[in-house]
Amino acid sequence: MRVLLMQADTVRNLGDFLILCSITNELRNQDDSCEILAVTILEPTEDDLRAYRQFGINILPPVFSKTLSLLSRIRRRTLAGLIHVLLVFACEVLYVEMLCWACGRNTSRSASSNRHISTLMAIRDADAVISVGGDHFVSDTGASFGLIRALLEIRLARKMRNPAIMFGQSFGPIHQKWLRTLVRRELSKAAMIVPREEESLRFLKTIGLGPNITIGADASFLLFKPELWFSEEQHAFKGGLRVGIAPRRYTFSRDEREQRYQEELYIKKLAEFADSVALHGNNKIVFIAQNESEHESDSAMIDKIRRSMRQGASVVPNSVPSSMVELLERYACLDFLVTTRMHAGLCALLRGIPFVVIGYRPKCRGIMKMLGVERYLVDIRSFSSEDLHKLLAEMKSEYAVYRRQIQNGGLKARKLARSSLEAGLKRVLQSKIRR
User: Fold this and answer.
1) For residue 5, which phi and psi values (nearest 5 degrees)?
2) Above 90 in pLDDT, residue 104?
3) Range of the domain at 231
4) In the chain, count of helices (H) and strands (E)?
5) Domain with 210 in it: what CATH number?
């Protein structure tokens, strides 16, 4: 079986590294001879090439990365709003049509002469195409170039007569009516849509999608194995607590002044929480940089928080792990985690470490609800350092109960993730047989 993964992100975002590990591992469990290819969102870095080779994945050049990157820079200087985005979309749709026409004119012998044509032919010839992005179909702060690009790539697969399986993704919120229309039009022709939480399922039904949807779970749950957890006796909390913090930069507002105010408030709250934890006994604070991609730097956010602190703290720097085991080992030193990075929380989950999520999108509530620990979620706009202290104390006093809840929720989510992936692959393969 040959499977092509679309919308694969840089491995410097360790959440996407986790998703890549999970799906690759599951596909090889189902078919040990499975050939896996991947089309990345942006031009792959040396780290990306090294990591994909490590997983035995053949990496293909992206189709739209340069064009949209250029247009997004122009937009920030001169154009804005609906007219600009529609023009971008129209130009890219025309580009898709030209590429598909060119692909039809190329033979396999001459395909390598054009890098984009070779990508299209790989999409066409794959047994299944799986879209593995996490948050591409979200536009909570305005029209998103990432969303437009994702729609174009899904359209590309359909034009090559190989509709994609939208696996383990979040959908919504999207507030613009015209953008909802575009999403509905393109996703209605996907092979199968597998939202990873109930909130996304409700959004998809709200915009008029339904027949090709089945509820699933985040791809990370495919690796869920509670038998690998530390025993509760190993977490006796002797010598003080080791509390991890995984922050992120979040776009609170498009207004620069409001954005600066909200971000400074977020930094202040986390610094106050970290200081108060570190003041008690031998407690230690450990910051974890989960994402160090082109547009986001968790290390920069960590530096800002540490400068606002009075107490010291250590940092686990962002580097591409050599394996899944190495990634999870970064969390092994922790007793608890407070995270604004959802996949940092899921890394902690895979090691059986209780965590609190500072939620910033509906996916956070959906995943925590799936695990049965929704009460350990706070909102990024309204939480306080006292809220985090209270939840930390609850996790410590109800440690065994919390772990039982996430174990039961994790096992259910793993079953959902596996069954939905199998159903998607089965549907695609059967449709090809009928053709």
Assistant:
1) -95, 125
2) no
3) 224-412
4) 15, 14
5) 3.40.50.11720
